[in-house]
Amino acid sequence: MAEGPQADPERPLSDAAYAALQDFVDDLIASNSFTEAEMMNTNSSVMAAESFDLAMRNVYPGVASGTVLTADYKAQAKILTHQRVTLAGYRLATILNSALAGVSLDTINESMKEIQDSVKMTQTGDIFNYYSLKGVERGAAAGIFLSCFAVGCLLAAAVTYAICLARRAKSSEKTTLHTPAVAHDTNV
């Protein structure tokens, strides 16, 4: 993020990699504060307007094709990026909490277990995974996973449905254009 750490650690995360990630998240939360209204805002039009405004005020001025970015510009970009990612995390949590408000933790855990059980695992040695969810409830983590999965399924279904409708419309156009005229009996 704006020339911050770009490591792509091996999965599952090692203890050291997980600790480094957790420290980074804790630092983002401690360094960036927002009003409750900002964190609870899930209106995509408002978010798009915020991003556009920030880009117009902070990103584009003084930058043209071929411009070498200054250290100050990069430092400001890093601060802005950290703020936006942190705010996006709060807003995603708001959306997920709302979407999963009526879903019990047992249901979430059972669904997650079903998904995990359906994945074929090949073990080449002993693996010990544990996750310490510092500052986040286990249900929220499971909810994030399940909601992303559900949104992906819904998007796939919507795209498939749109393709079917487009093919059906195209097929009916061809049928209409190539239907022969009804022959009339001229021996009447």
From TrEMBL:
An annotated Gene Ontology molecular function: endonuclease activity
Record GO biological process: DNA catabolic process
Coiled coil: none
Residue spans crossing the bilayer: 140-164
InterPro entries the record matches: PLipase_C/P1_nuclease_dom_sf (IPR008947), S1/P1nuclease (IPR003154)
Lineage top rank: taxon: Eukaryota
Keywords per UniProt: Disulfide bond, Endonuclease, Glycoprotein, Hydrolase, Membrane, Metal-binding, Nuclease, Transmembrane, Transmembrane helix
UniProt family annotation: Belongs to the nuclease type I family.
Protein name: Putative 3'-nucleotidase/nuclease
UniProt source species: Leptomonas seymouri
